Amino acid sequence: MGIESLLIFLIIGAIAGWLAGLIVSGFGFGLIGNIVVGIIGALIAGWLFPRLGFAIGGGILAAIINATIGAVILLVLVKVLKRA
């Protein structure tokens, strides 16, 4: 993976984590936390969506949408487990 790919990966993770934090109220983890949440969200979406037969498409915008949906799923799970 080149430095450009890594930088895009981190930017997509940060955007997705930030958007997920806005969607799921009460969660803001700062820049590093948002990147981690976005990357984990992308992994969740990359694993879950093909099994459900769900595909958005290709490109950076689709990657941000996929990662954001996965990050929202992650934050909702964290919120539910925190209440328990």
TrEMBL record:
<dbReference type="Pfam" id="PF04226">
    <property type="entry name" value="Transgly_assoc"/>
</dbReference>
<comment type="similarity">
    <text>Belongs to the UPF0410 family.</text>
</comment>
<keyword id="KW-1003">Cell membrane</keyword>
<feature type="transmembrane region" description="Helical">
    <location>
        <begin position="55"/>
        <end position="78"/>
    </location>
</feature>
<dbReference type="InterPro" id="IPR007341">
    <property type="entry name" value="Transgly_assoc"/>
</dbReference>
<feature type="transmembrane region" description="Helical">
    <location>
        <begin position="31"/>
        <end position="49"/>
    </location>
</feature>
<keyword id="KW-1133">Transmembrane helix</keyword>
<keyword id="KW-0472">Membrane</keyword>
<feature type="transmembrane region" description="Helical">
    <location>
        <begin position="6"/>
        <end position="24"/>
    </location>
</feature>
<keyword id="KW-0812">Transmembrane</keyword>
<protein>
    <submittedName>
        <fullName>GlsB/YeaQ/YmgE family stress response membrane protein</fullName>
    </submittedName>
</protein>
